[in-house]
Amino acid sequence: MRVYNFSAGPSMLPEAVLTKAQTDMLDYEGSGMSVLEMSHRAKCYDAIIKEAEALLRELMNIPDNYKVLFVQGGASQQFACAALNLHKTGKADYIVTGNFASLAAKEGARLTNARIVASSEEKTYTYIPKVTKADFDPEADFVHITFNNTIFGTKYNYIPDTGDVPLVADMSSMILSEPVDVTKFGVIYAGAQKNIGPAGVTVVIVRDDLLDRFTPDCPTMLKWKTQADKDSLYNTPPCYSIYISMLVFRWIKSLGGVNAIYELNKKKAQMLYDYIDSTDFYTNSVVKEDRSLMNVPFVTGNEELDAKFVKEAAANGLVSLKGHRLVGGMRASIYNAMPIAGVEKLIAFMKQFEAENK
Ligand SMILES: *Cc1c(COP(=O)(O)O)cnc(C)c1O
After folding, report:
1. From the CB of residue 66, how many other CB atoms can be counted at a distance below 10 Å?
2. CB neighbours (10 Å) of residue 95?
């Protein structure tokens, strides 16, 4: 029996995608082999990676002057790549809105003169700071933000105006969940395992005029230009993860694209927040206007009860609801692949648990 998996990542994939992968497993389109066994130089693999890129471009409306890269190393590796690839003055501005944003700034500080422009740490990252152009150093090489904060459940409801300074956004936990104007960003990156596909592939979308700013000693494999010049086939890419991502992109397109999935995501999040707000039993402490559509943390205020909740929910087919160790309590990650029925079942369980434990 399949469960509703609320894991923050790796996370649920659409069942249609898994079934298709199952069908293709032993013999991919008459090739007589699995995609797992295929050379990344094979013609049939080339069609897969090209379709993946074309679909992502279509879904996100990515202009031609942006390169789309499929790389390895996770979103975490891009923390260093930003500083290594955008070098000019050796200064960079960071907004710190959570754990990953903080890790990005710390990694940046090893490689560049990293300045923290704003942080919401003093309120345990329960809101997104409002910043204006005047807050940024016009000489900075880039401004780095984490668009959706996976652990704390916040999301930018605006795109900071950084003037001519390229804006770099970690979109790991919200990419493809809502429409985004790519032209407002210099670089967007995302680990696939939240909202795209399996772990192992990271998407980097980079404006092409930024590809020549790497530091002289930037390692070949961390240089965006290396993969940009070779269409992500400089070396062996994470072939199978890219194939599953391609199937996910097809699935999103079949539902009507990002706008259509955004409507579903708003509906799911609204249902859950509305219920949490309607009762004193559960609390979500994020400032309402900054709430994430993808990651919904909540607590009962009693650690023992939280643990009981997680355990009983799992017994009811609602798994991976334990909150991150930094926050405690519960967290429901409701990425694109989580059906409305999963959220309905979660809310029904929450009501029942409340009735039994009030
Ligand atoms: C999960 C996550 C990361 C870390 O991703 P890895 O692929 O494990 O390196 C970084 N940033 C955000 C916003 C995330 O959600």
Report:
1. 21
2. 23
Going by CA atoms, what residue is nearest to atom 12 of ligand 1?
A: 172
Task: Assess whether 47 and 102 both reside in one domain.
Answer: yes
Q: Which residue has a Cα nearest atom 3 of ligand 1?
A: 75
Spacing, Cα 74 to ligand 1 middle (Å): 7
pLDDT in tens, 302-345: 999 999 999 999 999 999 999 999 899 999 999 999 999 999 99
- Return the ligand 1 atom nearest residue 171 CA: 13
Is the shortest distance between the CB of 173 and ligand 1 below 6 Å?
yes
Range of the domain at 302: 4-12+256-357
> Are 55 and 177 within one domain?
yes
Cis amide bond preceding 339, omega within 30: no
59 and 197 co-located in one domain:
yes
Q: Are 331 and 8 in contact (CB under 8 A)?
A: yes
Q: Which CATH number is 272's domain given?
A: 3.90.1150.10
Q: Do 248 and 260 have their domain in common?
A: no
* pTM reported for the whole predicted model: 0.98
Same domain assignment for residues 87 and 148: yes
Q: Which of 228, 236, 201 is nearest to 212 (CA)?
A: 228
Contact 11 CB / ligand 1 (< 6 Å): no
The string over 260-278, giving b where at least 16 C-beta atoms fall within 10 Å of a residue's C-beta and e elsewhere, is ebbebbeebbebbbebbee
Q: How many CB atoms lie within 10 A of CB 200?
A: 21
Residue after which a domain boundary falls, among 254, 279, 311: 254
Per residue in 237-274, pLDDT (tens digit) is 999 999 999 999 999 999 999 999 999 999 999 999 99
> 144 CB less than 6 Å from ligand 1?
no
How many folded domains does the chain comprise? 2
Count how many Cα atoms sit within 13 Å of the Cα of residue 128 in the half-sphere of its side chain.
21
With a 6 A CB cut-off, is 191 part of the ligand 1 pocket? yes
Residue 295 is inside which H or E element, if any? strand 295-298
- CA 288 – CA 292 distance, rounded (Å): 9
Which amino acid is residue 295, in one-letter code? N
> Are 222 and 283 contained in the same domain?
no
Does residue 28 line the site of ligand 1, with CB under 6 A?
A: no
197 lines ligand 1 (CB under 6 A): no
Report CA(221)–ligand 1 centroid distance (Å).
Answer: 19
